[in-house]
């Protein structure tokens, strides 16, 4: 048996753990939490439409889409998430129904149903809604080919919805391919957000994605631009993660957010509870990082608007 005298732990001279990396990390996290509490963000009423894209799977697109959406909603923004991936992971994380018989984004794209008939409230926040995806969307890639204005179906439907029911942010979660679904996202959005995983081959395929964005700009949507890059799944202990982050910052100094999302178990387990990490464990390192990213995104536009006015 071990006996620990209570006084050992209570001793003011006991500096156990005070100067370990973990203790420093926790102290840092609590400072960042406090800083976040003091921040107030104003929203201009202008709708910003983001598409979260990267043709690689498993890089954190969906995780970023839902967590940023929830963090922005928490800041007071009205947010609509459009789940454009047949896997429906964003719908799951936002706790909205998306079984095969649910009216979904598929019906908007293929059956001309208005957004207002498919949008659901997310239990995450009263400011957050989601246009769910269902398994039917897997066939939409083919079915869209024969549709009139096949590249603009999402844009048209979204514009109609926003006229009656404006929001501050629309965040579109894309599938990991550059097919017609992603093209619909690119014509509906003006800002592209690319999550980059701080691991091997992070930049592989990026030039192809940038090329696609340029093509869309030239032929379908002149407003589209890469506005934001978010480094995700960062593991500060590895030299590799630091190198990837440095390399991305060198290439894209304007676009990369200061906030970096750490690799965190809390982030990856939240969806299995039908939640984002913001509601699942809002004070965890992953949630704090997504909140910081949301503040930066909101403030960047604020300062851009101020510069324009000046
Ligand atoms: N910051 C993170 N820490 C730990 N796991 C993460 C993190 N971000 C994403 N993941 C996990 O990585 C996997 C892929 O993420 P996901 O967002 O689904 O990628 P994508 O939408 O690009 O395919 C998921 O299992 C997710 O839970
Ligand atoms: Mg996904």
Describe the protein.
The chain is an alpha/beta fold. It has helices spanning 6-10, 21-38, 61-74, 89-93, 105-111, 137-143, 153-164, 180-188, 206-219, 239-251, 265-269, 277-280, 285-309, and strands spanning 48-52, 79-83, 120-121, 128-131, 169-173, 191-197, 225-234, 256-262. It has one domain: 3-Layer(aba) Sandwich (Rossmann fold), CATH 3.40.50.300. It has 13 helices and eight strands. It has an eight-stranded mixed sheet with strand order 3-4-2-5-1-6-7-8, sandwiched between helices. β7 (225-234), α10 (239-251) and β8 (256-262) form a beta-alpha-beta unit. It starts with 5 loop residues before the first helix and ends with a helix. The relative contact order is 0.16. The model is unreliable at 1-16 (pLDDT under 50). It binds adenosine-5'-diphosphate and magnesium ion. The site of magnesium ion (MG) has 4 residues, from α3. It comes from Microbacterium commune.
